[in-house]
Amino acid sequence: MLTLPPKVTERAFERLAEIGASEQGKALRVAVEGGGCSGFQYQIDLDAPADDDMVLEGSGEKVVIDSVSLPFLADATIDFTDELIGARFVIENPNASSSCGCGTSFSM
Fold it and tell me: Is there a contact between 12 and 27 (Cβ–Cβ < 8 Å)?
């Protein structure tokens, strides 16, 4: 079965450029860890790319995903949203069978 890498929206890359991630030698790291209220949770932060990361590039910026998290994020979309409740990076994941209200926890 072919698994597609995650997609990153132009809006997410633009936000990384606004905060100067690449100028600091950083990339947006998206990882999946055990825990959260639904079994798995997303960990999103700025970090230096590692050798075994998948690197997604756009607008001079990078999003990196480690090899363990990659299968959980197949064909997901990494986006940036700016709403009344706050501005944040969000993940639309077709692999998640359910998620919780916080948007950072999911189950498969």
Answer: no
Separation CA 24–CA 70 (nearest Å):
24
Read out DSSP for 22-54? GGGT-EEEEEEEE-STTSEEEEEEEE---TT-E
User: How confident is the model over 43-91, as pLDDT tens digits?
Assistant: 999 999 999 999 999 999 999 999 999 999 999 999 999 988 889 999 9
Cβ distance 55 to 71 under 8 Å?
Answer: no
Q: In this structure, how many other beta carbons lie within 10 angstroms of the beta carbon of residue 84?
A: 4
Phi, psi at residue 36, to the nearest 5°?
80, 180
Complete domains list, the chain, with CATH: 7-96 (2.60.300.12)
Q: Is 30 exposed, middle or buried (0-12, 13-18, 19+ CB in 10 A)?
A: buried
